[in-house]
Amino acid sequence: MEELIAAAQAVRARAYAPYSRHAVGAALRDDKGRVHLGVNVENAASPQGQCAEASAIGAMVTAGGTCIAEIAIVGPGPHLCTPCGGCRQRLREFAGDDLPIFIGDPDGLQEQFTLGALLPASFGPENVG
Ligand code: THU
């Protein structure tokens, strides 16, 4: 957990957030133990921006991963940088209710959740068909 928080905090420096100035880093560990990183990537046409979690998921899938074991998300503080609704659903695609989600700020871990707590009664791959 501390390693993931530290990785998410370190990668925050690479966030592209010139509009919000709200730099976010995400570090996720896949089921093979590999760590994948992501940052938010904003855009002048704001709806085209991408959250850090989405970037990290893209990195995992690009590396051949399909299962998230745990994830840390670090924002600037002081407020909790919990994943947005869209990212909760993105995480659900590659994890179940028990996924640990660690939320940090530059001082370290702030709070810990599970995906099931943040996205109850979710619709996932098993619900299709
Ligand atoms: N953001 C993330 O990257 N992850 C989160 O968990 C919450 C919000 C980004 C989106 C946008 O670039 C900026 O933070 C402000 O909303």
Descriptive terms for the model:
129 residues, alpha+beta, binds tetrahydrodeoxyuridine
Task: Write a concise synopsis of the structure shown.
The chain is an alpha+beta fold. 26% of the residues lie in helices and 24% in strands.
Structural description of this entry:
There is one protein chain. The model has no long low-confidence stretch (mean pLDDT 98). The longest helix has 11 residues, at 52-62. This protein has four helices and five strands; from the N terminus they run H-E-E-H-E-H-E-E-H. It has a five-stranded mixed sheet. With 129 residues, it is an alpha+beta fold. A hairpin with a 4-residue loop joins strand 1 (25-30) and strand 2. It has helices at residues 2-11, 52-62, 85-92, 115-118; strands at residues 25-30, 35-39, 68-74, 100-105, 108-114. The structure holds tetrahydrodeoxyuridine. Tetrahydrodeoxyuridine binds next to helix 2.
**Side-by-side strand order of the widest sheet:** 2-1-3-4-5
Small molecules held by this entry? tetrahydrodeoxyuridine
Question: How are helices and strands ordered from N to C?
Answer: HEEHEHEEH
Q: Please report the distance between the alpha carbons of the first and last residues.
A: 35 Å
Shape: globular
- Please work out how many helical segments DSSP would assign: 4
Overall average residue pLDDT: 98
